[in-house]
Give the backbone structure.
Amino acid sequence: MSTIDLPVPGLRGVPTADAPQNRKDFTSDQEVRWCPGCGDYAILAAVQGFLPELGVQRENVVFVSGIGCSSRFPYYLNTYGVHGIHGRAPAIATGLATSRPDLSVWVVTGDGDGLSIGGNHLIHALRRNVNLKILLFNNRIYGLTKGQYSPTSELGKVTKSTPLGSLDAPFNPVSLALGAEATFVGRTLDSDRQHLTSVLRAAVAHRGTALVEIYQNCNIYNDGAFDVLKSKDTRDEALIRLEHRKPIRFGRDGELGVVRDPGTGTLRVGRVAEVGEDAVLVHDAHADDPTTAFGLSRLADQESLVRSPMGIFRQVERPTYDDQVREQLAAAGAGGAADLGDLLRGSDTWTVGADA
């Protein structure tokens, strides 16, 4: 048995499989219980088809989830899995990743699970840069509990819990992740398997927290939420594909481009014929400063989703929390400055009942 090393730093130290694996090896015997037509099926198929590529023993892969339709994911994969409580998946996964460097640890969560009760756990996993891969399924609705508005539902959304329209301004998950200093932030679509798989590959290679927001259709309670990004009639002008080191152009003939406004410094969309090709922004996912990546995340209208960037917004290197914790423990065990025994028997301890 060997372990994976560079050039896949995200899997460094994880044992490789003894023999080639296929999709069937990662498919459990459990009946998949989502509504027919749910976007979760497409994501599951993509992940099951992608996992054998890693060359990792399935016994060294763990999927951790919270509560929601997306959180049934661990049942349908023939790996280890933890079906946790609402919103707490990042906390459980942090413990696993820190104590077991031989595991590839994944979190599967939804916009309700991850951004409402689990919001605090999510942002701290991101800022700590734990070696986790977080898949955030965003269908902009609460599906499992039958159609209430969620933290990503658009303003004015009429649901069972907001019959007169939601008054809450929605979260932008990519903006939130960038604000929390996440080192890898991506976005993709449930129905675009090729793009979804390419973003997953990059996320796995990354060492640190990788958040991938996946626009996922709930055909029962929020059907068609992402049609503008999928329809042949609208997608060319609604969807902006991000590719590292390439000009950010889109439209049927690439006639539109993202430019920086010289007056305000903010990003906007312009016609290339009017602004000139040199004015079009070249995407740099590896920029240390997340300001431009954040600006890209703000292009989309949160109600219509027109001008939604897709791809990897940010991918930078920073020491991971779990690696550093293990280094500290090793130093303590070696009798260094942080010797555990000295800490336990320091000057602030005393014996109860001892003579004065």
